[in-house]
């Protein structure tokens, strides 16, 4: 019997609503497979916790999470707490605290009716974005000088270490080799004349060790256009933190919206727990109404199962999501349905239980 300990950090807004459905799915799998068991512990961290304690998580939060096999996170941010505080003091703290330097964000069209792009089918939009997750523009380096004065200057520095850049690019080449797919690097070396020139050089250097992997390099502006006009160009993409964050929202837009976008924050060395989350935020405008789409959160359960080595269950979860979307019977309003968050979760469980 394999026992997996999962820390639940549902967070803010619709986070708790969608995480509840992902937990339902894991509990259903546990019932169907007597070789698997999941143990959950819930952490009440987020903006409400901040209002009470002036911090988003406990001081020893990272220490408390260390003993888990995975972290399942909902969403972060709510009006009343500045967004940069809620993001940095919880989500980014966990990513950095556990050296989760790989962010895996699949861009996969499950049904061609979901894409706003004309004449694109499921086989045209099916790629993986590998985003550097710990440094770059999200390194937290910068300064705010002469605040409020006419000389005011604000600096936000992108940090690209050799270690950080090499390891994400190497991870992407390994993945491309394993999957026998092409690898596209997305940067902006014509304008960002230090960081992105360095990124391109490292991509070229590391690439010499992988002559079997076909490569492409695009500037991020051209790549954004190709995401929308010719997504079939991409198989595996590697890019920096900020570009990856923005590009994967385009990825969500071309595959059915934020309600379907999943992300895994991975520590490949497995020294620490990895974290699985829907890419969407806390959506305060619909929080508490029971209409949030739980599919992104359920898809992140599939990524978690794959990370645990349960690839078959991971595929079952993704294929069941596809069936539900294809049937169009039980969907939330963002996908044109009339059902609630928990009705979609219940239907999912009913389907995998057969
Ligand atoms: N589901 C996690 C969440 O609330 N994400 C909001 C967000 O802004 N994330 C930024 C990032 O992924 O770097």
Automatic annotation (TrEMBL):
Q: Which UniProt keywords apply?
A: Manganese, Metal-binding, NAD, Oxidoreductase
Q: Which cofactor does it need?
A: Mg(2+); Mn(2+)
Source domain of life: Bacteria
**Catalysed reactions, semicolon-separated:** (R)-malate + NAD(+) = pyruvate + CO2 + NADH
Pfam family, any one: Iso_dh
What general EC class does the enzyme of this chain belong to?
A: oxidoreductase
UniProt domain Isopropylmalate dehydrogenase-like: residue ranges: 5-348
Q: What is its EC number?
A: 1.1.1.83
Task: Tell me which stretches of the chain form a coiled coil.
Answer: none
SMART domains, sorted: Iso_dh (SM01329)
Transmembrane helix found in the keyword field: no
MF (Gene Ontology): tartrate dehydrogenase activity
Family designation:
Belongs to the isocitrate and isopropylmalate dehydrogenases family.
PANTHER family attached to this UniProt entry: D-MALATE DEHYDROGENASE [DECARBOXYLATING]
Protein name, UniProt field: D-malate dehydrogenase (decarboxylating)
């Amino acid at each position: 019997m394999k026992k997996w300990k999962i820390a639940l950090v549902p967070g803010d807004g619709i986070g708790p609503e969608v995480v509840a459905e992902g937990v339902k799915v894991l509990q259903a799998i546990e019932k169907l497979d007597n070789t698997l068991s999941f143990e959950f512990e819930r952490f009440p961290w987020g903006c409400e916790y901040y209002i009470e304690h002036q911090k988003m998580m406990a001081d020893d939060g990272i220490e408390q999470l260390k003993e888990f096999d995975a972290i399942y996170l909902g969403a972060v941010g709510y009006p009343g707490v500045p967004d940069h505080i809620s993001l940095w003091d919880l989500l980014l703290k966990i990513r950095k605290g556990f050296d989760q330097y790989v962010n895996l964000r699949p861009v996969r069209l499950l049904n061609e009716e979901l894409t706003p792009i004309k004449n694109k089918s499921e086989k045209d939009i099916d790629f993986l974005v590998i985003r550097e997750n710990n440094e770059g523009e999200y390194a937290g380096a910068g300064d705010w000088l002469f605040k409020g004065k006419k000389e005011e200057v604000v600096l936000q520095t992108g940090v690209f270490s050799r270690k950080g850049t090499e390891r994400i690019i190497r991870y992407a080449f390994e993945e491309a080799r394993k999957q026998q797919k092409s690898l596209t690097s997305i940067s902006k070396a014509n304008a960002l004349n230090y960081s992105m020139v360095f990124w391109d050089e490292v991509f070229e250097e590391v690439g010499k060790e992988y002559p079997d992997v076909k490569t492409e390099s695009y500037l991020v502006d051209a790549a954004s256009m190709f995401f929308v006009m010719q997504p079939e160009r991409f198989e595996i993409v590697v890019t920096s933190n900020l570009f990856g964050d923005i590009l994967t929202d385009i990825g969500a837009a071309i595959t059915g919206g934020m309600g379907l976008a999943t992300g895994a924050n991975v520590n490949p060395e497995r020294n620490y727990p990895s974290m699985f989350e829907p890419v969407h935020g806390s959506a305060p405008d619909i929080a508490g109404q029971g209409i949030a789409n739980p599919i992104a959160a359920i898809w992140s359960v599939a990524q978690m199962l794959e990370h645990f080595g349960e690839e078959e269950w991971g595929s079952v979860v993704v294929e069941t999501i596809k069936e539900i979307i294809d049937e169009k019977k039980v969907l939330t309003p963002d996908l044109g349905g009339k059902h609630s968050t928990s009705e979609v979760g219940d239907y999912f469980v009913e389907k995998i239980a057969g």
